[in-house]
TrEMBL record, chains A, B, C, D:
GO terms for biological process: ectoine biosynthetic process. It comes from Nisaea acidiphila. This is Diaminobutyrate--2-oxoglutarate transaminase. Its cofactor is pyridoxal 5'-phosphate. Its EC number is 2.6.1.76. PROSITE patterns: AA_TRANSFER_CLASS_3.
Length: 424, 424, 424, 424
């Protein structure tokens, strides 16, 4: 039986996208599984593009949110002080900032990652009095006009239908392979007063590029960027929207990399339960914002405050969750390395933020389509969509994880076998 | 007893704003009332800047949402087809579009009004192959870089710390008083090939300018803009984020004004319960989007689909709600006219989207501060913050409404009396 | 015999323009007459678009230039000090600045008006630390990217094939007729902090718009612009490239209008003989340029220094030339008023910077074409090319002037008669 | 006796520059020598920054120009067809284009190199419908807003006091030394759809970067740029303003490098005698300009047509001039190599477009100052002004050339000796 998708097809704009890869209607979800209207259940290796690091509908978050709503807790309060916000701020301070000896102020922006990025860019420009932002090849930072100027993806950039200004581009770590030292390129371009590059307001980067193809920056390169930023009076913005909240093993993706960003953007898994929620962290001495200078109706989603607080208390009050992620990450790496060894791809990424570059977007798409038929939701990334991306919930049960990876392995084998057959 | 606000003050960025006018911690809210941690209850004439047109925590929306969460309904599904989305689309089609003989496709954007505006601007540019957007004096369309270029407010514009490009400005209806015909100005500028204005991709406007000072455009002027747009191959975008969802009496603010916008942006009260949710409506023949060309993690908030559907079914399945708004609007007008007659201000706006221009931002601020002490939450708008803005929930009980207006009247009288005493 | 124009047609780009209206090859010129290869002589009412205010090949300038070249005078010296430059600066100081009690420093820019404008815009932005420039409807300031952003003409703007940024537009004096006070519009837009207009770095304007249709600004409006500029910390730039050098009767077009611009751009007739030459005048306290910050190979054309000095000494050492212009201007006005009375057009402009609006570009073109056949070179201006523009050399002999105006009158009558015949 | 420079100091803007390095008043010049008011004569190794490739006041050009002026030849004719223009076009066709089997149309732009570049950029955007231009590190293309966006020099860029848009930057050949292949970088950035670089309207480059430090591009790299341009539908613009007109040995700098630019910009020595004159060459099938779409008062300087024609006839009617340049260039190279061997610098550039990188701007400045005292005019270039630039007239007598190089050698030795003494 085919799902009746006519209401979507007749009413929704052509801009819809993920639903095209997974043409069914979903109804409910729990943990690492998501169920369709036809009763079929899928293992979720997409996890809301890392928005569901703690899985779907975590029971503790659910309960807290239901209680909050039932008790007439504030649902919408602009940026009023609310009890829910206060509790979140306290938990974020207690469980995240203090243990890491980090000193950031929290700016609740409109509840999208792009909005957190827009705020970060504005602040960097305001603080430094400079215009340029340096972003990197294959970076993805959102699609509102300011954030989109930082995004490298040409398909999304073209969607603006106007020039995207204010941003200069430099190569990400190993953008041209191992022979060309991107750190040296960066440094020389900034040290040459006739290079056409000015010292920027800020550098913005992801420590692992999610949409860009699971490209992982080395600690050394990141430290070079930070050093050059300091030398030229520029700020360092880490966009931790996709890589943060434990995806690479630690709460922030940069914790073990020897850098101290001035500004950090967060969203996706921040609410714990996939609710719209974003924030921009900034060093207190950069906090020269005037009231409402960057504002927005939905900044500070109170429902999200509730679930985000539970997430922090449940998963980040000690190091046990991090250790569990590490174990799973090792398991994942072994499986992906084995797959690559067998079929010839390249394993990419770090922690539970991994993928396998299968060489072409067509092949990757076929593998994902095959996975879907077999009960696994999985997607691609990369400039050519050539990387099959494994973004399982961090809380996934090992048996589910194994099952999902088995489906991936079988699908990959099957697609590649049929390719070989075609070629023969 | 003063509320302990230290957690906000120590941890939140200076950018926070509304909380400065209402320095307390709110805990719960129901209907038109909101309660603080100290037990004090306030009547809410701010209503989340028109995000709470149906009041706080409407019992039917609450129940539906609690049931949905308890049943492991999808909380986050990127832009997957979900049952909740399908039901919302059906309800929007049945209760809104069909009865009005309107033909729009729905684009779920990132869940902020600014994001809906960014999508609208991109689409208008893509469709027409033109760059310029014409926005109007005192317009407010959000603060992400693309939307902010359309916003007139200098304080917010300056926050970008870079030039805002791609937008030309024209005077809104009666921007220079009754003597200068803004429609004529618009028409002549577009008809003069040396005016420096090119035929734009689109005109973007609010039918009543919420942030800009409750300025109401006449049907005649709006029709002129639409006619000029048609003559020059430009689209008409109505930003109905603040004025829509019944605020002016009808679901869309433009229903009785004789115009047919090509694109409509919606957010704020769209979810019914104040949850982050936004969409861009577009005529089907403009739907040339490629998949994911404008995307975003939280586009299509499933919790909001649930509550928004309830809102549509409960309030818009027949004309009774509109009629009730009309009655309240008349009552409101009488009260405001009486206030203005007594104290010398000017009544502004339309429907339940009203305000009183008291001549200066300082005075308006004092009145609002006095109201807060007396248990009323109310705010200002306008270029100089000179308009005290009445944005009560449309569902407010008449006794509450009266009580709130009494507080406003007393506060205004008291502030003005003390001014006179000072001056004497 | 038709001129053989094949070398131009085969070799020159389609961008060539004036030569299309006057399809012949010119060989020599003297005073107000220009001679073609076929021996035919034309009266010149175009005068290099006001670059030949002193006529072609003034004998004193010619002699001085020939002597200079024969004596191996420096032809090209970058911006070296040269004797020719020193003498020009002294003459400009003695004959122009001192008698008018004006205090300007001279910046020699690249030898085009557009370059002088580019320098003016850069300086205004540097001095004020602001980005925006306010330019006016129908203004023309050149076609390099910075200057073109100020130019109103849509045909030229489109030539950029990219957005023109950094400039906001306001209506010129009486841009919408007498009913709408452009000064009030300007003032209100700047005083409204939500208008979308920021206080600009500078206002740039022509006192009479040459290309824009011989629109003359009133002293009152100009004074309003200057006052508003002062109130908002903005500079006033008068682009006197076409209107200056005596065209309106005085050396600067603004001498009798009660304004004191901060920056003045000059070119066209500045060299006296039509040689490429431009400069930007700036108040000494604005002279915060760093050396070479705006540079260019041909800034300071030494041949032009020689002829420009002769022009200043010959025509501006006392008031006699101004008085003669006034007499001719009165004569011209009488003739144009009579023409307009007879044929129904509108007389435009000031001094010897006049034209007659004949209602349509087609009609104006036909009149000019007819004039050319009868021995008069004359062109159109205006947003629709609807103004037949009389830009005779200021030194034209009265008999020539009369003859030229007779040709114009006859051509106009003839074209209009044939139109009437067609219509009958 | 010190020259009295007060008229310049009191009247000219601080923006003046070269005159600061050579604080005297020049009066006359002939061939490779220039004479000051105090009678002192200097050898000219600056040659108007390559505007005087044929030396000062070439007797044949002088005579032709004097005759032309004396005979009332058109001095200023907008873009009318004139005899002088026709003769220049014929000579350019006969002596330059035909012998090289090149097929270009000629666009006379405003008479500055920057204006020719602005025209080239506009045309490339118009032809391709694309916005971006790719320019290279250390490129110099002028300082009007469009051209300045292509220029790499930070000092000049900052002079705009606003963002410079529409241009992306890539590394010039060997910008990062021999280890990093700039051609590979270019190719990979364009082939990666997520690099943030779009296929541009055009690449713009100099084959030898004059202002950027006499950096010479290899034929191989230039061919890579051209190939990548063709693959991506982009045009190739060679800015031959400084390197053209024989400076590198051939008329165009790219003649022997295996590339066929779509658009070529020319100025500086084009007029032969240093008169303001510029043009943009374009392949006929790109000639989609509309009439006057890029215009300007002084486009097509008739005096320059006269001298430029003489230059073409005298120097380019056969290959003898090129051969003589080659001989001088070899001589120059020997001398510079010897100097570098002795003092430790690096010889840069090609043909008669050479320099010696002495390691620091301070040292280079001291050497030039010492040269001036000894009767040689010479200047620096490079991002840090670290290259002493030898731009002698191509027509310089060998004895003068030797004398100038002797002064350079002595000055360099003397400065370096005194440095060593200081250090000891």
């Amino acid at each position: 039986m085919t799902a009746d998708l006519s209401v979507y097809e007749n009413t929704e704009s052509n801009v819809r996208s993920y639903c095209r890869s997974f043409p069914t209607t979903f109804t409910s979800a729990s943990g690492a599984e998501i169920t369709a209207a036809d009763g079929k259940t899928y293992i979720d290796f997409l996890a809301g593009c890392s928005s569901l690091n703690y899985g779907h509908n975590d029971p503790d978050m659910k309960q807290a949110l239901v209680d909050y709503i039932a008790g007439d807790g504030i649902a919408h309060g602009l940026d009023f002080h609310t009890e829910a916000k206060g509790a979140f701020l306290q938990a974020f301070s207690d469980h995240i900032l203090k243990p890491r000896e980090m000193n950031y102020r929290v700016q609740f922006t409109g509840p999208t990652g792009a909005n957190a990025v827009e705020a970060a860019l504005k602040l960097a420009r305001k603080v430094t009095g400079r215009d340029r932002i340096i972003a990197f090849t294959n970076g993805f930072h959102g699609v509102t006009l300011g954030a989109l100027a930082c995004t490298g993806n040409g398909y999304h950039r073209k969607g603006a239908s106007r020039p995207l200004e204010g941003v200069d581009r430099m190569p990400y770590d190993r953008a041209f392979g191992d022979d060309i030292d991107s750190g040296k390129v960066l440094e020389e371009l900034l040290n040459n007063p006739s290079s056409g590059y000015e010292p920027p307001a800020a550098f913005i980067l992801e420590t692992v590029q999610g949409e860009g193809g699971l490209n992982e920056a080395s600690a050394e390169w990141l430290q070079t960027v930070e050093r050059v930023a300091r030398e030229h009076g520029s700020l360092l913005i880490v966009d931790d929207i996709q890589a943060g909240c434990g995806r690479t093993g630690t709460f922030f993706s940069f914790e073990k990399l020897g850098i101290c960003p001035d500004i950090v953007t967060m969203a996706k898994s921040l609410s714990g339960m996939g609710l719209p929620f974003a924030m921009t962290l900034l060093h207190p001495d950069l906090d020269i914002w005037s009231p409402a200078e960057h504002n927005g109706t939905f900044r500070g989603n109170n429902h999200a405050f509730v679930t985000a607080r539970v997430a922090l208390e449940k998963f980040w009050s000690d190091s046990s969750f991090s250790q569990k992620i590490e174990v799973k990450a090792e398991f994942l790496e072994e499986r992906l390395v084995a797959l690559a060894a067998k079929h010839g791809g390249t394993v990419k990424g770090r922690g539970m933020f991994r993928g396998i570059d299968v060489g072409s977007g067509e092949l990757a798409d076929e593998i994902c389509a095959k996975c879907f038929k077999r009960g696994l939701i999985i997607e691609t990334s990369g400039a050519h969509g050539e990387v099959v991306k494994v973004l399982a919930p961090l809380t996934i049960e090992l048996t589910q994880f194994e099952k999902g990876l088995d489906i991936l392995a079988e699908s990959m084998a099957s697609v590649i076998a049929s390719k070989s057959a075609d070629a023969a």
